[in-house]
Amino acid sequence: MLYGDKSEEFEDVILKANNEGELEEVFERKEYKVFQRIYLSLQEDEIELANPMFLGIYNHIIQYFLQNETFNLEEYLMNLSPEFAQEVTNIIMENELNELSNWEGRNVFVKMKEVTTAQYVSETILSIRWFLVGQLIEELKHSVSKELEEDNSEHLRMTMDYNGLINSFSKKLGRVLSRYS
Question: What angle do CA 171, 2, 5 make, to 5 degrees?
């Protein structure tokens, strides 16, 4: 909402086969509008928001960005239902509160979000993917048979692959990801 109409350069990771037929990661930098990057990433991962309020706001704002070149908050709020407008106003006010905290006066120097929008968007998308993969691992855990004669090697292989994916997310984010159940 705050940066959706801004263009940023994002790094895409594509798996391509090399001359030996092995898959390797290829990094490409492309420019997207922030809303396009979020929309395409959520669509690629087949993720839908579970909270009906946020799903409604998300669908409405994507339609707004597709129809308008720039984001005009007042115009956008006029087109929202009162309950959505209240939630959007709360989100904007919370962001304003953080910006008005006079961090520099306390000798705390924080990068402004406008400077690191691409990083925030990429980190959020990777965090959502990490959560989704964590759910898949949990489902695999519950589907493992406790019978000794049952072959669970496929479940184990998939779990190891998913854990490798989480390690990849961790490297990209530059921090350790852990999940507590």
Answer: 90
Q: How confident is the model at residue 180 (pLDDT cuts 50, 70, 90)?
A: low
CA distances from 10 to 34, 76, 138, 140, 142 (A): 9, 26, 31, 32, 36
Kindly state the tokens that stand for 97. 């509160």
Residues linked to residue 29 through DSSP beta bridges, in sequence order? 11
Q: Which two tokens stand for residue 120?
A: 């925030």
Reading phi first (left if > 0) and then psi (alpha if -120 to 50, else beta), residue 7 is in beta
Neighbours of 61 (CB within 10 A): 20
The two tokens of residue 79 are: 């087109």
Helices (H), the chain: 34-44, 52-67, 73-78, 82-99, 117-143, 153-173
> In this predicted structure, what is the pLDDT of residue 123?
85
Question: Structure tokens of 72?
Answer: 């005009």
Asked if residue 73 lies in contact with residue 64, where contact means CB atoms within 8 angstroms, the answer is no
- Whole-model pTM: value is 0.58
Task: Mention every residue, 6+ apart, whose C-beta is less than 8 A from residue 2.
Answer: 92, 95, 113
Q: Quote the CA–CA distance of 162 and 134 in Å, as a whole number.
A: 8
Is residue 106 helix, strand or coil?
helix
